[in-house]
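Posting for a labmate who doesn't have an account.
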Amino acid sequence: MSTARAAVLNANNEPLAVETLRVREPREGDVLVKLGASGVCHSDLHAITGDLPMPIPCVLGHEGAGVVEAVGPGVQRVRTGDHVVLNWVPFCGACWYCQSGRNYLCEMGYVKAMAAMVFDRGGTTVGQFAGVGSMAEYTVVPEASCIPIDPDLPMDRACLIGCGVMTGVGAVINTARVQPSESVAIFGAGGVGLNVIQGAAISGANPIIAVDLNEKKLALAKQFGATHTVAAGTTDPVEAVKELTGGRGVDYAFEVIGVPDVITQAFMATRRGGKAVVVGVPPMGAMVSVPGFFLPLAEKSLIGSLYGSANMQRDVPRLIDLYRAGRLKLDELISRRYAITQVNEAFDALKKGEVARGVIVF
């Protein structure tokens, strides 16, 4: 077995412990990855708070990039030395969802990844968040979780594609399929929200309205393509969005926080026939309420978006091409870089809204 320093969640709402764990060797279909960088995402924070239930103890991190260190028997798509972005919804290729072209909804691949016992602490198993556990120097994942990338792409940029960028840009391009000149509102201008904003800009949407309580985040939103901003703490965001769209509301509203009341606001800010797309993850068991009257009589829709409805094999190279062409901002997303020993500082900054994205660099 290899050993790795890792950020371990041992109890909800307590600081993470940086521990040295044993990492098992790759088995049939597995890949051992040496991490280069891991993004610090709100989903990890939800695991810390308990809003996203997860077996504990657990190595956090799901937004990772690294280099293939070793492969198990039967692995064909990657080899030792390959640079990869990690995919936290590995696909089996055989279930109904995969066969219907929706491999981001694959149940079997994710269940298998979650069941893989990779980390060990003195004979006790330590789980992998989202089947990845990228806040560790090494991890073991299924082959389908490894998306090869060019070796010249810096790891701290590449890792962001593994979740925040794909989730945000994909929600616009894949889930909603926003067209040029369609109007968009984004409720929440954090790390994923900024990627929804730039996804809208890439799609040619107009106007692109960013809604947030934090003025610093609204300033960032303009850098990423927002044409208008709404300070939700000082004005009614629904009325403000309608005012900016001739009283109609937007074609698409994206909720990127995971707050039930804000999901309702996003729904109400859409026009007749519009769609509210839920990207943020509400706490387990939370209910969302919308006026049922508007579902049939205004033909409004409330839909979800998981992982930007991504086909990772197809979409990762596309996003890298957009980055190289100067149309996708990755460098600008990184507010701070941290060592693994600073992981709790990284989460504190995330909770305070001080960063677009923090990245742990190994």
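Reply:
Got it, the structure tokens are right above this. The longest helix spans residues 164-176.
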